[in-house]
Amino acid sequence: xxxxxxxxxxxxxxxxxxxxxxxxxxxxxxxxxxxxxxxxxxxxxxxxxxxxxxxxxxxxxxxxxxxxxxxxxxxxxxxxxxxxxxxxxxxxxxxxxxxxxxxxxxxxxxxxxxxxxxxxxxxxxxxxxxxxxxxxxx
Length: 138
Ligand SMILES: CC(C)(COP(=O)(O)OP(=O)(O)OC[C@H]1O[C@@H](n2cnc3c(N)ncnc32)[C@H](O)[C@@H]1OP(=O)(O)O)[C@@H](O)C(=O)NCCC(=O)NCCS
Known about the structure:
This protein is α+β, with helices and mostly antiparallel strands and 138 residues long. It is built from 3 helices and 7 strands, in the order E-H-E-E-E-H-E-H-E-E. Coenzyme A binds next to strand 4, helix 2 and helix 3.
């Protein structure tokens, strides 16, 4: 399999495999990208979707998912590191995300990529679970 990573061109339609992986990983899928959003992907295998606030030099990781059969091979880390580097090159140097305290693989990934906990949103998720807020500054 060819694993070429890249950023979806602005205005390009969201690939169907992204919606399918989004549904498989999170139970629902977000459709076309808003103008302030950006998406990096390893085609057919993984994607990371961001919301950008250029005026503040900030961005938020909305979703990251690796196809179940490709997890645990370092692809999530490679994808996240590319995003972090390219966002920093755009001047987006303060990155945020929310994560469930029960999501051990995601917590490990973020810690390995230099993210740090900076807050908690009580009962943030629909099942009543809190969200941990993480930040990463370049
Ligand atoms: C979270 C996710 C993106 C990680 O992707 P991945 O490609 O499997 O992660 P990597 O292989 O790059 O691993 C990154 C780190 O997490 C660790 N890790 C991966 N899977 C793990 C697991 N099941 N349990 C514990 N740690 C795990 C790895 O060992 C690695 O740490 P290390 O460098 O210390 O060994 C992937 O599990 C996924 O798509 N999950 C479903 C969607 C999701 O929960 N997204 C995050 C919330 S938005």
